[in-house]
Amino acid sequence: MSSSAIGRKGAATRQRIVAGAALLIRDRGAAQTSLDDVLEATSTSKGQLFHYFPQGRAGLLSAVAEHEVTQVLEAQQPYLSDLSTLESWERWREAVLTHYLELGDKCPLGALTTELGKTSPETRAIVSRLYGTWEASLALGVARLRERGAVAGAIDPDHLARCVLVAIQGGVTMLRTTRRVAYLQVSLDAALAPLGISDTTAA
User: Fold this and answer.
1) Are residues 156 and 74 in the same domain?
2) Does residue 203 form part of some domain?
3) Which pLDDT tens digits describe the chain residue by residue (203 residues)?
4) Which of 59, 69, 11, 7 is nearest to 38 (CA)?
């Protein structure tokens, strides 16, 4: 077998372990998910796990955090990368609501903030980077709207971006508890009100 084939197989095995651990943590929480649980759920041997994660649990949790960050950002694409029109903001809003309605209390954002972000300085830094990247994308979108004259020039892009992130996080927290996306919809629409983007129909 070629080295490239071995590399692809190894990468697939590592990803399978990470994805399986992520699902367990979304369902049970990080504190309630042991390495033995991950081994059983992913049909992985202890030797395999420590081959890919020499640091054990700490290394695996960091990898899961990176995985979940990717899930959060990719779910918002292609809209998050180009929020230069009100139409693109509306499509982004619908994508966010649809994504979290489908996932319910198993969403990666909730696991990142309430679970993984507390496990170590490494995972905390990963979660912090997520919010920094996300905030920058939203702020850039607002700035582009201002440049085009699509929204009031008095709107502060950084402030609005932070309000949107807080709205999503709060709404997702309540969604995870109640399984009602209406909380996320109301909070997100309130944050987006300065842009004139909302839907008065509660989900």
Assistant:
1) yes
2) no
3) 333 444 878 889 999 999 999 999 988 888 889 999 999 999 999 999 999 999 999 999 999 999 999 999 999 999 999 999 999 999 999 999 998 888 877 778 877 877 787 888 898 999 999 999 999 999 999 999 999 999 998 999 999 999 999 999 999 888 888 888 899 999 999 999 999 986 644 44
4) 59
